[in-house]
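Researcher: Sequence of TMM33 protein follows. Predict its structure.
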Amino acid sequence: MADSTQNGPMPGGAGGGAVQFLMANKLDTAMWISRLFTVYCSALFVLPLLGLHEAASFYQRALLANALTSALRLHQRLPHFQLSRAFLAQALLEDSCHYLLYSLIFVNSYPVTMSIFPVLLFSLLHAATYTKKVLDARSSNSLPFLRNLLEKLNANQQNILKFIACNEIFLMPATVFMLFSGQGSLLQPFIYYRFLTLRYSSRRNPYCR
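Model: Prediction complete. Tokens:
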């Protein structure tokens, strides 16, 4: 599931190797930072340590950061934009396009805890994979405790992806409930249904089926 990067460890000192790696992969580094920010904001929404009012703003920030990450990833996958039906069809096959749409669906809606989990977990998985590459570029033995945490997270990747897929499905009746409770818009269930049909055809997460 994680983004692929062609660069391996860089020569130089421990810190210098990591810095060179980050500078040599600027777009991947930008996505890594935005994903870490998404994880941070999502965590402060799920655990409202700064109060409920602040939690709502962290919800919106997490979705906006995820939208930025998805847009950068989509640009990386499809660098040459074309205003054509063929390009749109190709873009709709990309998971990054799906989650750009997902963020736009929920960013201005009433905060729903269930809707933040896919954003949080995807960001965590991708950020963990890139963090391991940064550690490898720094030194093959650097920060063993952090490496062990990343390995455990990677070992549970399948279970996390299954949980995300179930979460995406159960959000469909949640959007309908939000509509009847006055917390959602009339278009939201229909747009979210379109999102689910796109996820069903996902080439990267087979558990959606």
